[in-house]
Amino acid sequence: MGAQPNQDWHQAELACPNAARLLANLAEVDRLRQELRLALYNCSPLVELTDDTMAYLDLSDRDARWATEAARASHLGREVQQTLLLPLLVGVGQSRFAAWVAAQMAGPGRARLVPAGGAAEFLADWPVAELPLPSATRERLLSFGLRTCGDCVAIALPDLQRQLGPDGLRLHRLCLGLDQAAINPWRSPPPCGVRRVLAGVVEDTESLRFGAPELASGLSRELARLGLAATRLRLVL
């Protein structure tokens, strides 16, 4: 069968003894992430990067550079493909879930748009097994004979809630393309700093030598409080 994605290295080596292990160039990965952010921000100021494989953009604002959402989505696909040298799946919808489904349907290097007001019809054939719900809920829906979003929409909301509790309302809204999860845009963390005022005139480096550990300790505590880590340090005298 050979090696599989996300497989433990030792298992992969057993499955494919002649495999070569290539280590990631972390500096290059970081450079690509920065270029990807720039490409995405060129299309929208509100960008949420969920991981290195998926991003959500808020395209609700009008941009004079593109006459239609389709043109904007196509431009986004080209920009990212030129940055990563990989084809992009682009989906545009009025909710996160509808946009995600549209992207899965788009195909590599293409964009798919959910018609305005047509999310329920667009999602009607999407399988419940692929819904972002607990596995127990999906299994229960299948046991009821509900295979698609269209099947679920045909059931009255009170009946769904009676059978599934809070998941019933979430299911109903997902199948109608009405989930209201907002974009959580990525923002660069603010600069973090500490300071110490030295008494009198500093004529040699002794004061700095004794003050540096205190500053370093203070900076470490402040970074820990904010849940951050430093990659660059600047000393200003």
What does this structure look like?
Residues 1-132 form the UmuC domain. It holds the Pfam family IMS. The chain is mainly α and 237 residues long. Among the domains are: 28-114, Alpha-Beta Plaits, CATH 3.30.70; 120-176, 5' to 3' exonuclease, C-terminal subdomain (DNA polymerase, domain 1), CATH 1.10.150. It has ten helices and four strands, in the order ααββαβαβαααααα. It has helices spanning 9-15, 26-41, 69-84, 96-106, 119-123, 135-143, 149-153, 157-164, 166-176, 206-226; strands spanning 47-49, 55-57, 90-92, 111-113. It has a two-stranded antiparallel sheet. It has a two-stranded parallel sheet with strand order 3-4. 19% of the residues are buried. The model has no long low-confidence stretch (mean pLDDT 87).
From the structure above, extract its key features.
single chain, 237 residues, mainly alpha, DNA polymerase, domain 1, 4 strands
Summarize the structure.
With 237 residues, the protein is mainly α. 46% of the residues lie in helices and 5% in strands.
Topology:
Blueprint: H1 9-15, H2 26-41, E1 47-49, E2 55-57, H3 69-84, E3 90-92, H4 96-106, E4 111-113, H5 119-123, H6 135-143, H7 149-153, H8 157-164, H9 166-176, H10 206-226
Parallel strand pairs: 3-4
Antiparallel strand pairs: 1-2
CATH class of the domain at 28-114: Alpha Beta
The helix fraction, in percent, is: 40-55%
Residue windows where pLDDT falls under 50 for at least 5 positions: none
CA radius of gyration:
25 Å
Q: Report on the biggest sheet.
A: 2 strands, antiparallel
How confident overall, as mean pLDDT?
87
Strand order of the largest sheet: 1-2
Supply the CATH architecture of the domain at 28-114: 2-Layer Sandwich
How many strands in all?
4
Order of helices and strands: HHEEHEHEHHHHHH
Mass-distribution shape: elongated
Total of helices: 10
Q: Give the full name of the CATH homologous superfamily of the domain at 28-114.
A: Reverse transcriptase/Diguanylate cyclase domain
User: Which structural category do the helix and sheet elements fall into?
Assistant: mainly alpha
CATH topology of the domain at 28-114: Alpha-Beta Plaits
> Between the first and last Cα atoms, what is the distance in angstroms?
62 Å
